[in-house]
Amino acid sequence: MNKFAVLLFAVLAAMPAFSAQHSSVRPRNSADPSDQETIREVIEMERQAKEASLRRDPEFPQRALAEDYVAITPLGTVTTKQDSVSARKSGQLRYDTIDVTDMVVRLYGDTAIVTARADVKGHQLGEDFSGPYRYTRVWVRRSGRWQAVSYQATVTQ
């Protein structure tokens, strides 16, 4: 198994991905203003995650990933919160850009499911890992704060 790909996707999984300014958000039809506020909160978590990934900040996954967090990489590897934090701390991974589009946020009580496309440019140990991905991330609100509990990424064309 390619260790580079495992590390890359551990970090992708931890970067709850991305920026609202590059997203089109299509929430479920709802007249409830609190749903719209909740969607804004989740989008803000995604924005913070993108910025933390670009800065290689290991503190964001430490606080934003649930202890029981699990991610499945495009290669089928299962990674944990600790894997994601360690990948950030290693400093061997560099993102040049992360551009997110086609973002959809769906709410189910205190659970939010985000799907999106991410076009990533970056390098690890001089090896390019740039390309398009699709991902699904599950957020759960626990004790008033959002935590990512699951993530799955797929390489696209």
Keywords:
157 residues; alpha+beta; Nuclear Transport Factor 2, Chain: A; seven-stranded mixed sheet; 4 helices
Please characterize this protein's 3D structure:
By secondary structure, the protein is an alpha+beta fold. It has one domain: Roll (Nuclear Transport Factor 2, Chain: A). It is built from 4 helices and 7 strands; from the N terminus they run αααββαβββββ. Strands 1, 2, 3, 4, 5, 6 and 7 form a 7-stranded mixed beta sheet that branches. A hairpin with a 2-residue loop joins strand 4 (111-124) and strand 5. The longest helix is centred in the first third of the chain and has 23 residues, at 33-55. The radius of gyration is 15 Å and the shape is globular. The two termini are 22 Å apart. Residues 1-28 have low confidence and may be disordered.
Radius of gyration: 15 Å
CATH topology: Nuclear Transport Factor 2, Chain: A
Total number of strands: 7
* Percentage of residues assigned to helices: 25-40%
Beta-strand residue fraction? 35-45%
- Poorly predicted parts: 1-28
Tell me which CATH architecture applies here: Roll
Mean pLDDT reading: 83
The CATH first-level class comes to Alpha Beta
Helix/strand/pairing category = alpha+beta
What coarse outline follows from CA principal-axis ratios?
Answer: globular
Helical segment tally? 4
Note the run of SSEs as H and E. Answer: HHHEEHEEEEE
| Cα end-to-end separation | 22 Å
